[in-house]
Amino acid sequence: MVKLVCFQDKVMAVFTSLSPNTERDDLWLAWQMLFKPWQWQKGQGVLELENYFKNWLPVSRAFAFSSGRACLYAILQAIGVTSGDEVLLQAYTCVVVPNPIIWLGAKPVFVDCQDDFTMSVEDLEKKITAQSKAIIIQHTFGCPSAIEAIMALAKRHNLLVIEDCAHSLGGQYQGQALGAFGDISFFSFGRDKIISSVFGGIVATNNLALAEKIKQWQNNLTYSSYGWILRQIAHPLVLFFVKKTYYALSLGKFLVTLIKQLGLISRAVSLAERQGGKPVFISRKMSNALAVLALHQLKKAARFNAHRQKIAALYDRELVGLPGVRLPQFRGDNVYLRYTICLDKAKFLISQAKKQGIELGCWYDWPVAPRDTNLDKVFYTWGSCPTAEKLAKRSVNLPTNIQTSEKDAMKVVQFIKQNIIKQNI
Ligand SMILES: Cc1ncc(COP(=O)(O)O)c(C=O)c1O
């Protein structure tokens, strides 16, 4: 009996990751799209997505690409980043951010972050040199960066500012949308982002000269292959069934690994990228099929974010004052892609949670994630960003996505309280 209850509890798992934005209507749309291969590459979807996004942000020009990293690559070439240049970005990031800088022969220069997971202005100032060309500011987990201070510094040093809004679609700062502050910005529709089409992203700008260059670059790209698009359309459907059986007979983890090995679903970050490499599929036009899925999700973004904020408020209320746990202290109108707490023994907490059917997240558990990234290849020097390194050891992401109900969030809270207080971890 006890075994059965435990089993049922695990079947009702809570997921921070694994395509958490997919709802029934998204599954239905993906299912229908599977049978319309003539619409996979070309169609009106991309233009509709770009036009909708432009008005939604709002911004004067928007261009869709096959991923957020493809957007950043397009931006860097448009602003003329080339060999010998330096581009400043924060540590406590994903390897796909420094990679496009490296592909253009330039050097990523890592700036430390502060306790809110965004770039430290103090360290930024120290790392600007005569070779610096641009600054990428990352609104990590939806938290606006120190925008005014960074913009002022950039102006003083004549540097362009690129906003990385991969985590912050729908976020605002002082009433203005994130993504409309810098010279140019990009958003991601990756599988674990604010909205998802598995792969996809969009560049946004009010700078017409840069927009022209981005447009040209976009025109010259080719479409992703039919096989690649098929895998992305099938991704939410496959994951839906994987999640339903995730804890049954402990098959879930095995199944995810197996279907990745078989190439049935794609990896978020390929093995080559972890070594600073550039896989051929990375820089492509956005395919029509994925644009249709992304637009459908974009229309739900406000509801998703309101839900995230409600769940974050619950965590704020329930977890305040827990010994040894630092809750996120964010500025501005944060959309809480993930609610990230910091504590010693973060890894242990994540592994204990799995046993209870709670899949917590580990973004970012390495100064340039994922953990098996070759730091030398991406120009990261160990010790150069101590706060980022400390946060990487101590971060645990709690789920806020639309699939996480208040009851699920309370399950997470109870688990953390029990483990922190009883086991004193
Ligand atoms: C902070 C950050 N910026 C940019 C990206 C790139 O987005 P995409 O996965 O769509 O290429 C990611 C992806 O994980 C990210 O975490």
Tell me, rounded to a whole number, the average pLDDT.
Answer: 93
Question: What structural category characterises the helix and strand content?
Answer: alpha/beta
CATH superfamily of the largest domain: Type I PLP-dependent aspartate aminotransferase-like (Major domain)
Assign the CATH architecture of the largest domain: 3-Layer(aba) Sandwich
Bound ligands? pyridoxal-5'-phosphate
Query: Total domains, how many?
Result: 2
Strand content: 5-15%
Shape: globular
For this structure, the CATH topology of the largest domain is Aspartate Aminotransferase, domain 2
What is the highest CATH level, the class of the largest domain? Alpha Beta
Number of beta-strand segments: 15
H/E element order: HEHHEHEEHEHEHEEEEEHHHHHEHEEHEH
The number of helical elements comes to 15
Structural Rg:
21 Å
Family: Belongs to the DegT/DnrJ/EryC1 family.
GO molecular function: pyridoxal phosphate binding; transaminase activity
Keywords: Pyridoxal phosphate
Pfam families: DegT_DnrJ_EryC1 (PF01041)
Question: Briefly, what is this?
Answer:
With 425 residues, the protein is α/β, with parallel strands linked by helices.
Structure in words:
With 425 residues, this protein is an alpha/beta fold. The protein folds into 2 domains: 32-220, Type I PLP-dependent aspartate aminotransferase-like (Major domain) (Aspartate Aminotransferase, domain 2, 3-Layer(aba) Sandwich); 301-422, Aspartate Aminotransferase, domain 1 (Alpha-Beta Complex). The protein is built from 15 helices and 15 strands. The protein has helices at 2-11, 24-34, 45-56, 68-78, 98-103, 121-127, 147-156, 208-220, 226-244, 252-261, 288-298, 301-319, 346-355, 386-394, 406-422, and strands at 14-15, 61-65, 86-90, 93-94, 107-111, 132-138, 160-164, 172-173, 176-177, 184-188, 201-205, 339-342, 358-359, 368-369, 395-398. It has a 7-stranded mixed beta sheet with strand order 2-11-10-7-6-3-5, with helices on both faces. Strands 1-13 form a two-stranded parallel ribbon. β6, α7 (147-156) and β7 (160-164) form a beta-alpha-beta unit. α2 (24-34) runs antiparallel to α11 (288-298). The chain is globular. Residues 1-10 have low confidence and may be disordered. The chain binds pyridoxal-5'-phosphate (PLP). The site of pyridoxal-5'-phosphate (PLP) has 14 residues, from α4 and β4. Belongs to the DegT/DnrJ/EryC1 family. Keywords: Pyridoxal phosphate. It holds the Pfam family DegT_DnrJ_EryC1. One of its GO terms (molecular function) is pyridoxal phosphate binding. The modification N6-(pyridoxal phosphate)lysine is found at residue 193.
